[in-house]
Amino acid sequence: MANSNSAKKRIRQIASRRLRNRYYAKTMRTLVRKVRTATDKTTADANIKEAISIIDKLSKKNFIHSNKAANLKSKLMKHYNSLS
After folding, report:
1. CA distance readout (Å), 36 to 6, 8, 46
2. pLDDT (tens digit per residue) in 13-72
3. pTM of the predicted model, to two decimals?
4. Which residues contact 31 (CB under 8 A, 6 or more apart)?
5. How far apart are the first and last CA of the chain?
6. In this structure, are residues 70 and 52 in contact, taking their beta carbons and an 8 Å threshold?
7. Of 25, 33, 68, 78, which one's alpha carbon is 20 to 30 angstroms from that of 2?
8. How far, in Å, CA of 43 to CA of 62, rounded?
């Protein structure tokens, strides 16, 4: 167990950051899944904008690597454009 005040504060910071990171990751995965499982453009339309937006935000914060973000967006747009 932590003894110093700075160590206790560090534990609190890590816990809050872990929760925030889990929220970001889960939100991104859910939106990507919604776009990939969409069968027509009307349902995928709103989801693709939201998914690309959050992918860009996470890439900007270095939560995910910029190349991974580019690959995700590319694959999502490829799937979106193939829908009729």
Report:
1. 45, 42, 13
2. 999 999 999 999 999 999 999 999 998 898 899 899 999 999 999 999 999 999 999 999
3. 0.82
4. 47, 50, 51, 54
5. 58
6. no
7. 25
8. 29
